[in-house]
Amino acid sequence: MIKISATLAKKVPIEGLAYSSQQYGAAMEIEISDADRPDAIKSRIQELYALLAQTIDEQIGAAQPSLQQVNAGTVNSLPQQRRLNSPAPAATQPQNGNGRRAPYSDVVEVMTDRARLRGLVIRSERYAVMPGALYPTPGTKIELPGARLFGSLDFEPVKGVPFPSGCTPSAGIRNSHDKSFALSILSGARVFICANGVLSAEHVISRKHTSGLDMVESIDKALDAFMDSIRAFQETYTKLNAWRLTKTRAHSLIVDLARGGAFSSSDILPVVQEFENPRHPEFKEPTAWNLYQSATEIMKAQSPARQVEGFKSLNTVLTAHLN
To answer: In this predicted structure, what is the pLDDT of residue 69?
Structure first.
């Protein structure tokens, strides 16, 4: 017997968001007889490809536009806000009624309110709501539209907190109703020139996603950690900006970033080209900071979920090299 494994993926641009896309994929494995004629084998491969392509087209057709870009102060005025206000899917709620999962609007509202109490002035907000799934028993899959939330809050410079010129503090938010990851804040910065994100740390808020006073307390602790992180960001920036890279060292580091999971191996050459010929002249010096910007420029094409993991890997690899 001959075993054939096939994987097909397609990236679709996210409407209204430059350099961003949503990826859809499907995989399948079949066995065919090694006694089959070459033309019969070729026909089966073509059928397999057609089936995978049809599956992906059905995924794309079923998906709803998920990206919501909102400006500070206008969240509640948008019709799309219904997706944040919708309750958590019934399949994700505990059977005994205890510890009800909070809708995303509760998380966003508490997060923004507690941030403002710390003197953080929100400059802009962005949210993406994406589908997920639960697998209650082997072979059983429950589709959950809107099961995963990704967001970012960019803040005005914080008085008394040194921060790199051309950057502003930024917090990422991620939450899920399908238990794929915990509710957490990602601390970092937004670079004005290119709107690239820079991740410095992740602070887990809660693994239960429940509403009530425990959410306020947990978010307060995470925001305290966020404030500590942005106070330390200037030092990280200084180290990366002072680290000058030879071409050989830069190429080696880019390969390490791909191996570490920051981006796929197919993105190695685009990152190299972006580093050596940046589209923004402010990043022309061969420093580790500018290499970071080159990587994140290419990573804009990743889905929100993939970007979070990519940023974490990027940060882990560069921090290890710095130390």
So the answer is: 38
pLDDT tens profile 186-202: 888 888 767 677 776 77
CA 131, chain centre distance (Å): 14
CB 295 within 8 A of CB 269: no
Contact in structure between 11 and 61 (CB atoms under 8 Å): no
Distance CA 216, CA 21 (A): 33
Residues 31/1, Cβ–Cβ less than 8 Å = yes
d(CA 94, CA 209): 11
Average pLDDT value for residue range 288-293: 95
166 to each of 63, 93, 110, 121, 320, how far by Cα in Å? 37, 44, 29, 17, 25
pLDDT of residue 102: 63
Q: Which amino acid is at 222?
A: A
Please give the radius of gyration of the chain, using alpha carbons only, rounded to the nearest integer: 22
**Can you read off the two tokens belonging to residue 159?**
């008085």
For the question of whether the overall pTM of this predicted structure is more than 0.70, the answer is no
Q: In terms of C-beta density within 10 A (0-12 exposed, 13-18 middle, 19 or more buried), how is residue 50 classed?
A: exposed
User: Is the sign of the CA dihedral 88, 94, 100, 106 positive or negative?
Assistant: negative
3-state secondary structure 31-64: EECCCCCHHHHHHHHHHHHHHHHHHHHHHHHHCC
Q: How confident is the model at residue 101 (pLDDT cuts 50, 70, 90)?
A: low
